[in-house]
Each structure stands twice: as C-alpha cells, then as structure tokens.
Amino acid sequence: MSTLRFQALKEASNRKPVHFEEIDRKSSLFGSNVFNEKAMKQYLTSDAFKGVRDAIQHGTKIDRKLADYIAMGMKEWALAKGVTHYTHWFQPLTGTTAEKHDAFFETSYDGSDPVEKFGGAQLVQQEPDASSFPNGGIRNTFEARGYTAWDPTSPAFIYGTTLCIPTVFIAYTGEALDNKIPLLRALSAIDEAATEVCRYFDKNVKKVTATLGWEQEYFLIDKALANSRPDLMMTGRTLLGHTSAKGQQLDDHYFGSIPTRALTYMRDLEQECMLLGIPVKTRHNEVAPNQFELAPIFEETNLAVDHNSLLMDVMQRVAERHDFKVLFHEKPFKGVNGSGKHNNWSLATDTGVNLLSPSKTPMSNLQFLTFFINTIKAVNDNETLLRASIATASNDHRLGANEAPPAIMSVFIGAQLTKVLSELESVTTGKLSPEEKTDLKLNVVGKIPDVLLDNTDRNRTSPFAFTGNKWEFRAVGSNSNCSNAMTTLNAIVAKQLIDFKNEVENLIENKDMKKDDAIFNVLREYIKQSKKILFEGDGYSEAWEKEAAKRGLSNFKTTPEAIKAKVSKQALDLFEQLGIFNHVEAEARYEIELEEYTKKIQIEGRVLGDISRNHVIPTAIRYQNTLIENVKGLKEIFGKEFETLAREQIVLIKEISGHIEGINSKVLAMTNERKKANQLTDAQKMAEAYCNKVKPYFDEIRNHCDKLELLVDDESWTLTKYRELLFMK
Ligand code: ADP
Ligand code: MG
User: Mind telling me which Gene3D superfamilies this protein's record contains (predicted)?
Assistant: First the structure.
C-alpha cells in the first residue's frame, strides 16, 4: 500500500557517494569565478579599476561613462569563462535571493548583426518584474515601481553560465525594498560613529568595518526520503511524526566521523564555495543526527551576508547532485535539536586593529573597553529590538526550547570581565587622581589580556556572548538572512557610540575634564545602567525566566509579540536618526513580516489538515479494518470464547476510532479558526489570531496522529518515519 515510503527507503538505502572532479589545492581555485581585484586589474583600464576601488573604499559614485568601461571589461571576463547570461542578483524581503537572467546575445531588429552586448546601463540599473515581491504597501501607496541597482562593494561572480551582479532593490520613490539597503546604511552609520570614537585613541583611523563570521547549521536528508514527506516539502519541517526510539541521547553523531555520503557532498560544496570566493573553513557534525555545520573565515559584513545568501542557494543546488535535500528550517524535527546561525561580530579599523580584542597596552585596552561596554549598553537599551530582529515563525520553535538561546536577550561576558567591570564601576566621579589613573591602567585595564587567556568559561546558553575577541549573537535562525540581525546590531551600537561621544565631549567641554577622565566617567555610568542585561547563569533554567521578569527584561515567545518592537517610537526614531529607515519603510517591513508570519502558519495549518485527513486517517482505517476482520474471524471460529481472545483487538479498534475522531474534530475546529482569522483586516490582529487561535491546534492534531503511528502496523504506515529520516546515511 504505502508505496512512496517504501520506494523512497529502497532508493535511499541503495545510494552510493556521488563522484565529482576534486581538485587538490583548493586555494588555487579561490575566487576564480569572482570579478575580484585580480580579474579587474586584468580586464579593466586603470581608470575603470580606480573607479571601482574608490567606490568600494570611499563610496564614491561611478558615472555612466565609467560604468560603460567597467561593463565592457566585466563582459569580456565573463565571456572568456563561457558565460552567456547576466542577472541582477538581490535579496528581496522574503525568500533567499532573486534573479532574472538576460542573455548577452542581441541582434538588430531585423535579426542581423548578432552580438554579445553588455553596457553600463545594464550593469548599473535594471527593472525586474517587481510586482511579485513583497513591499508592505509601499508601491501601492506611492504607485512606485522598483528597480535594482549595482552594489559595487560586493563583487560580481559567475554561477553556472550566468554573471551575477549583486544589487540593491529600491522603489523609484527611494524606499528600500530589500535586505541589503538597510544593511549598507547601518554599516555606514557604524563606520562613521565608530571612527569618531576611535579617534580618541588613534588619530590615524579613517574607517571602521563591521565584520561577520556566520556559522550555518543544517540537516542533510536523502532526497527520496525528504520528497516522500509532503510536510517537509511544503513547510520545511515535519508537522507530525513520532520521535524515534533513539534520538541524540548518545551524542554519537556529534562525536562520530562525518558519514561518507555527507562528506562527499561537503567536499563538492566547498569546492563550489572556493570558486565563488566564499572562504569556508570548518565543517563538522552537529548534535542531532544528520545535522551539520559549516563556517567560513569572517569577512566584511555586507560581503559575508551576500556570501551566506549565496551559500544557502549553492548548498541546495549541490545537494541535488548528491541526492540530498538540505533543511534550513530552525526546527525540522520535534524532539531533536534545531538549527541556528550564530553571527560572530566585531569591528575592525583600517589600521588593522580588532576593536573587540584586548591587547597589550593600557591605552588600546581602554579603547577595547570603550567598544565592549558600549555594545553592552546598546544591547541593554535595545533588547526588545534585538529580539525582534531574529523573530520568525520558524525561529519561534527554537528560541526558548531548551536547546537554543532563550527568547530573553541577555549578555554573557565571563567571570574575568565581570570583575573588570565591577572595578571600573567604583571609579571616582569627576576627575581622577593621578594615582587612581595609574592604578587603573596598571591593574585593571592593563591586565585584560592576561585574564582573558584563562577565561575558558564559555556559556553556551547565552544569546549574546563575548568570546574573547568578538561578540557571538547566537539567537539568529538558520533559515534567516543575516541582514536583519546585522542591520539591527550595527544600528544600535552606532547609535550608542554617537551618544557616548556626545557625553564624553560634554564632560570635556563643560566639566573641564581630560579625555581619559571623561571616558572613565561615562563608562562607569554605562556599567551601572546596564546591569539588568548581564547574566552569567544557565539561560535555559526556569529560575532565569523568573529573574529576568524581575529585572524587567522582555520574554516574547512568539513573532507577532516580538516584532512590535520594530515600530516602537524608540525604534522608529533610532532608524530614522541613523538614516536606515524612514517611518514608511519601517512600517512597511513590519507589515511584511506580519504577513509572512500569517502565511507560514496558514500553510502549515492547511498541510497538517491535509496530511492528517488524507494520509493518517485512511491508513488508520485500513488497519482498523484488518483488526475488525480479525475479530470477526475469531468470533466465527471460537464462538463465545472470542470475547477473551479479541479483547486487545477491540481495545485497539476503539482507540483508533478515538484518535480519528480527535483528528477530525480538531481539524474542523482549526479550519474554523482559520476562517475567522482570514476575516480580519488588520495585519497585526490576523497574525495574532493565527498565532494564538490557529497554531495551538497543531500540537493537538499531531498528538493524535503520532499516537496512531505507534498503533498502526509499520508495513502500512504511509509516511516516512523519524528513524528513517534521521538515521539513514
Ligand atoms: P564555535 O562558536 O563553533 O565555538 P567560534 O566561536 O570559534 O566557533 O566561532 C568561529 C566563527 O567566528 C567563525 O565563523 C569565524 O570566522 C568567526 N570570527 C572569528 N573572529 C571574528 C571577528 N573578528 N569578527 C567576526 N567573526 C569572527
Ligand atoms: Mg558559535
């Protein structure tokens, strides 16, 4: 009966690792499909090259004439590599990446003069069919169309036979319609604010770059098995399925060697990454069975975000060749660990200094402490906004589920730095005596590098942790585009650094303080004001939930609650002040996120309704019929004695009927709630209804289905089981 499942199992168990042409020295491939400095030097005139470099380094504009020259060189480079098409590659507000391919090939109107053409106009600006991308009402309101515009700070690359040009997506009225524009704006805000603060310590600093190193977690499931589960295909997660007897208790996956098929896939993937200039570095098993992680060397944030988006796409395409399906969902399986995307973040100067790395001299350590404490203050003051930046329907399953960071934002800094902060907290108010300053420099600020070395206490339960020379934002979802989190983090720190500078200047000008005294004074106050966000204990514990509530920290468990912070007055002002979003853009994005949430839950509800009625109930009835036949047969042969002989079967028959009734009535009730929710016109209310009225039925329906999975004969169960999805290698 259950052919799809058994066909898939047969297919999956016969698989062999797929051969691919592996090149030994991966470094020789690095960036060979990227229009990087090396390629530009070869294919561009020196003026054109200088133009691109200035645009990258100083944000200068590239005029049309120059764009023509650049396009010409880019085309020659691409044609030499067998490229036929080009596309403006961008990151719309939903989905990962978008592209529309155009051929270089052109002819005259009468079909004569066939030629490959690509000019400045095509490089710089395109108009995709934007009507299908979400815009939160922006285009309707303004009747504006959108266009894509070249982002020279992220190099063009070749994928397959297509030249991909990273672009932003923008409305003709100027509003951002994508993930990249706000990110670029936030990165420029932090550059400006951090550079200003750096100049207290080193006048040579002209630019500060935010760096990002993401760690991508994912599940790798055999393609046939994944395809046999309609819920996985439609929603990215299993909506039902009984936990397998063996899960991750033994930790044998985490510590084991990478299975051969998976390893072959990873090597192929890494080779593709090398060609694309994605500097992948580590690969390993993760906690759950068939779960893995991949991490690169960190890069400038805009490039790192592009690389992560590109990677997610490449991962899926390479998986196709290896008969795998990659699951990026934060929680594809109930009862086993979900996936995240830790965002490691730091700030680097153009003089080569990592601002979040303690060093040997007291002066540069005061600089370190300045950036360190300002980040803590920024998170303290904007914890709800940071929480909002990582809120999605799928990440809701993970946050607060005792495996990932809780939905409560807090900052972990380790015992040693906690001690440093408490010493700084008792710095004298006003001017410091020379003795105090010397003591601080020698014994507190000067000692940081030593103390950090033995700071091995790495609390894995914290959503935002200091890990020696960078911050690690661990609550980002595996399926998310990093830009949301990175835009927010860089924005709140930029705002904080601007405030810091103002306060220090005020003390210098109005209180006649020296620079050092002013900095110590402001930092001392920040430490006092940021107490509530610092937490070193177990983030998974119930005690912390209670404690956090006492401290007044937010604990939003669902997306509709969490993202309200994005349109709070504080957030709107902050984004506007920094030029990241105007109010229209911020409100539009909020609407889009609500709609996306609603759609996700709506689809899950429909799929669950379908599967439970079309797969589970018919299967249960078939099995129940077998039992009924059995009971009838027993009665026929044994007469009255059948009552004893068929007792268990009759119990089972009744139990099955109970669960069938349960499924039917709950699906009906859920459908009614969906209908009611669909009547609502306010996006916030609709999302809330889906969250609080529709979603609660999922677990109830699932419960009945999973019970039936345990009762029904394994041979006739149509849906591929957890043990098969998770343990087939
Ligand atoms: P794990 O969290 O698995 O223990 P690490 O803490 O060593 O691993 O994190 C490694 C990640 O941190 C890598 O992606 C690396 O590129 C990134 N990283 C290291 N230094 C920086 C930095 N200065 N800025 C941003 N990311 C960084
Ligand atoms: Mg990590």
Answer: 1.20.120.1560, Glutamine synthetase/guanido kinase, catalytic domain
648: tokens are 């268990």
Mutate to test the pocket of ligand 1, among 368, 458, 460, 470 (most ligand atoms within 8 A of CB): 470
Q: Which ligand is nearest to the CA of 345?
A: 1
Pick the CATH number of 596-727 from 1.20.120.1560, 1.25.40.80, 2.40.10.350, 1.10.10.10: 1.20.120.1560
The amino acid at 80: A
Which ligand has an atom closest to residue 286 CA? 1
Report H helices in 286-440: 301-321, 362-381, 383-388, 414-425, 434-439
Residue among 278, 298, 294, 276 nearest 286 (CA) = 294
pLDDT tens per residue, range 349-402: 999 999 999 988 887 899 999 999 999 999 999 999 999 999 999 999 998 666
How far does residue 726's CA lie from ligand 2's centre (Å)?
23
* pLDDT band of 451, cuts 50, 70, 90: low
Which position has the token pair 């009945």?
704
Which atom of ligand 1 sits closest to the CA of residue 357?
23
pLDDT winner (highest mean) among 419-433, 459-473, 644-658: 644-658
Where does CATH 3.10.20.70 sit in the chain? 31-178
Q: Give me ligand 1 centre to Cα 635, in Å.
A: 69
pLDDT digits (tens, 9 = 90+) for 290-320: 999 999 999 999 999 999 999 999 999 999 9
Q: Buried (b) or exposed (e) across 529-554, using 16+ Cβ within 10 A?
A: ebebbbbbeebbeeebbebbeeeebb
CATH superfamily of 31-178: Glutamine synthetase, N-terminal domain (3.10.20.70)
Domain ranges in the chain with CATH number 1.20.120.1560: 596-727
The boundaries of every CATH 3.30.590.10 domain in the chain are 188-239+247-581
Q: Which atom of ligand 1 is nearest to the CA of 346?
A: 24
CB-facing half-sphere around the CA of 332: CA atoms within 13 A: 29
Q: Measured in angstroms, how far is the CA atom of residue 644 from the centroid of ligand 2?
A: 60
- What's the longest Cα–Cα distance across the chain? 105
Q: What does the alpha-carbon distance between residue 231 and residue 239 come to, in Å, rounded to a whole number? A: 6
Ramachandran region, residue 17 (left: φ > 0; alpha: ψ -120 to 50; beta: rest): beta
Q: Residues lining ligand 1, CB < 6 A?
A: 211-213, 215, 295-298, 342, 344-346, 354, 467, 469-470, 472
CA of 400 relative to ligand 2 center, distance in Å: 18
Q: Which of 254, 298, 354, 471 for mutating ligand 1's site (highest number of atoms within 8 Å of CB)?
A: 298
Q: Name the residue at shortest CA distance from atom 14 of ligand 1.
A: 213
Measured in Å, residue 340 CA sits from the centre of ligand 1 at: 14
How far apart CA 281 and CA 299 sit, in angstroms, is: 12
CB atoms within 10 A of CB 94: 16
Nearest to 298 by CA among 453, 493, 469, 480: 469
d(CA 491, CA 7): 52
Q: How confident is the model at residue 1 (pLDDT cuts 50, 70, 90)?
A: very low
CB-based neighbours (< 5 A) of ligand 2, an ion: 215, 342
Strand pairing report for 291-296 and 208-222: antiparallel
- What atom in ligand 1 is closest to the CA of residue 293? 3
Q: Is residue 155 within 8 Å of residue 278, measured between CB atoms?
A: no
As a whole-number percent, the residues of the chain with pLDDT over 90 amount to 74
| Helix ranges restricted to H, 511-556 | 515-529, 542-551
CATH number, domain 188-239+247-581: 3.30.590.10
- Whether ipTM > 0.90 holds is yes
Atom from ligand 1 closest to the CA of residue 298: 16
